[in-house]
Design brief:
30% strand, zinc-finger, 19 strands, Znf_RING/FYVE/PHD, disordered N terminus, ligase activity, metal-binding, four-stranded antiparallel beta sheet, 5 helices, Apoptosis, Tumor Necrosis Factor Receptor Associated Protein 2, Chain A
Amino acid sequence: MTGKKTTASSSRGTPKKAKIEDEEEAGLENEEEATVTLSVEKDALECDICCLPFQSEVFMCKNGHSGCAKCCIRRDGKCWTCSERIGDMRCRPLEKLLAAATTSCVFKSNGCYDAVSYLERATHEETCQRAPYKCPIDGCAYSGLRLGHHVAQDHGRRDGLASIVFISGKAVATVRKDEPFRVLLQRNTERVFLLLNGHDLLQGRSLSLLCLGPRFQDGVEVEPRYKMEVSHGALTLSASGTIQFARRLDGFQAEGFLFVPDAYWGSAGSIAVTVRIYF
């Protein structure tokens, strides 16, 4: 008896073709999204008017000229290039580029190799553990990671420029009316505390504390607190709070201070300040 050989049919075609299709599908599933690395000149990501880096919002006029939000406001919404209206239309492609961009830390030479989001670089630089600290002594050009060691070694001698008080929890510092600050050092640390003597008030001075040094210790952010007291006869003035951090004295603005009236300074023009620093 003769008959016909029956072959099973399939929508995938022959076994060889099916195998190829399976491999292609597997390749598509395993395919990773491509990453494009661009090299962009710094000024291409800066506002043409203020020359500062763009933030998250970038505006453009109908002719494509871009600007930051602050400059659009300062220019009363008038494009500085073509005089068309600017400030209503966002430059979305550039905003997407800024949001995706990363850059190396500005303190890479000091050992920070983090890839930093372009829009968050300023925040990173404020808290970077490899950021240098500038010596507060007038005329000194030092800027580095070992500020405490530098001040103690180079300015702590009898002929040094700084008036240094070593503090271990508590210290009494004599402050003259004509000196801008006293240096308070804790041994075996790179933090430098400054007892600032502000002269921007009428009929008195403002005393405040600033820390020049690392904000983190063993990877944990520290918040040192202080209490300072000034006595005058039976009266005692006091202030307490959290010590502010900065990388340099220049431009620092104290958020809180102890007001000491001129009468407290006496004929010698000095006062004794009791300072406690605790973590």
